[in-house]
Queue: 4 jobs
Job 1
Amino acid sequence: MKKGQAIKVAMIDDHDMLRKGICDFLPSYGFEIVFDADNGKSAIEKMAVCEHIPDVCIVDINMPVMNGFETVKALRKKYPQLKMLAFSVNDDEKAVVKMLECGANGYVLKGADPDELQRAIEVIYNGGQYFSSGVCGIAEEYFGKN
């Protein structure tokens, strides 16, 4: 992160309390919330009209209207520079692999503490990949095959 420049974040999750809670605490870590959305369709609509494109999108998998897989694919196609962080309770191998195939740069489990979410955002913003310990082995195996 450049000195004095906040990483711009979009939070896409259908659980209102969780989404709003994360949007409330992320600025205390120096992040700027560009927008939040309760599904992928809403996020894509907000992206089209927002003044600043986010640097990082935090995307839940299981959402109504447009799920996280479809959302990451669509955003990746239209905004290839975006960094995508999957954010889910789901530690199933198929879900993790599918999110990686869709273009996610990292995967954080919803049980993570705020400091881990902060690290994940910063790592992927700076060009790296980040995976919670519960899915790290799945990601290592995926990247070892590809």
Note: The first strand starts at residue 8 and ends at 12.
Job 2
Amino acid sequence: MKVYLTDQINNFKKHLHSLKTSEIMPYDKKRLKEKTTTVELQTNRKLDQLNLDFLFDYQIFPDNIMTFITQWTEENRKMKVGDTIAQQVYIPPTKIFSQKIIFGVRVNEIIDKADRKGFSYETLDGHVEKGVSTFTVEQLDNKLLFKIQTYSTPGNIITKLLGPIFSVPYQTFCTKTALENVKRQIETQ
């Protein structure tokens, strides 16, 4: 984790290059807290009729919460397992008067089933959280859902101490905003 007062967008390639050599934070999934949040998608389309390019381009979080650079975009190709994402999180969620925190994640699974599409990633050394997050669009009978499932715990002493009063409420806000952002992108297709 690196903290800046200035936007790091012009340094994203440097941050991505550095994070590509970072290790995944070791974790035991059985010891992590599981949280699943979903939103129902109001559309007449079936899963196989949706354009999910935005999901696989990591356009999940609005850019007032997070900006990013992905390895696959930098290498001009599609996402694959092992790819790194450099994330810049804004705290508070505004680009101008915020701290810019840089950390990374690595794709560990791409899900391409008839009733479930998405991907998951694990956090890299220095991330504020330790664990794995999965982002999927799922077809359940005649219903479509977007789901975020996380298994995580604080990644350092600061987030352990501040978790109950800051980290948990901020993560809840970010998750709710991501659900709304994906819902909007799918429902306007």
Note: The CA atoms of residues 5 and 97 lie 8 Å apart.
Job 3
Amino acid sequence: MLDNLKKYNVILASNSPRRKELMSGLGINYVVKTLPGIEESYPDTLQGEQIPLFIAREKADAYRASIVEGELLITADTIVWLDKEALGKPADREGAIRMLRMLSGKSHQVITGVCLTTREWQKSFTAVTEVKFADLTDEEIEYYVDTYSPMDKAGAYGVQEWIGFIGVESISGSYYNVMGLPIQKLYGELKKL
């Protein structure tokens, strides 16, 4: 599948083990290349889908000078959007607990921005998934944070982990988007290249 990608050396610019797992599931050859210290901030005026799209493009721009002919770079960023507030990765244990308390008993959106970049062009898109959390006890939240250390995850949770098993009541949209990469939508975009 995706024979059209054979003309590219595909690069996934991500340290995320979940994104690597999902990319591997597509059965395409790719390499992982990361640059240290890429800024993930954004202007305060951005809202919802604009935020991860902006950050995915910023990540791509950080690599732009090093992209050579025949390379296809994939960058992505994921946020949790709750009550008009973006929840990124928590800074520490207390931040993770605070985020999970905010999500408890509520619906939120998981939004991922993806950017495809070559030397000649750039294309980007977003995916949005609605997630409903059950009411979580402080004991459940603290157990999850202390056992799974979700500091590398937007909104301080991994849907594929214990908290997803016991806390996620429903999902509307891509499950894989909640993991960090809307792989079905990415596949559709890659088919068009």
Note: The longest strand covers residues 71-82.
Job 4
Amino acid sequence: MPVKGAIKSDYNAKSFWFYPWGKSITHKGVDIFAKKGTKINSSTYGLVLYSGEINMGGKIVLVLGPKWRLHYYAHLNELKTSSFSFVNKNSTIGTIGSSGNAIGKQPHLHYSILTVIPYVWRIDSDKQGWKKMFYLNPIKYF
């Protein structure tokens, strides 16, 4: 669990691959709600590939972890790490916020796990079901 002090009631266990979900079409992660400024720790050890800002995700951190998995943390208030630094499960990488397309919404962390090695057996007929070969359900790892 990347959000310090978060418990099961702080996220919806059925939100992964929820349809419809705004511009994203399908929700490819989990939103973990907490008070603005709550610490976010890396959920894995790895290399920070990017720490910065993008349009939809706002302030984000992208960590390359074991098994070639990308851990994506979005809508942060503050960034507490930098690109090309190494992190572990004790590393604070940012704080809860509502940046990007979450401006005006309740502060939360959008957390996704992607694999760069396609899991083709996971493709199904859901909306954007072909993308399931890349997106893993992060709730299974809490």
Note: Residues 56 and 80 are 20 Å apart (CA to CA).
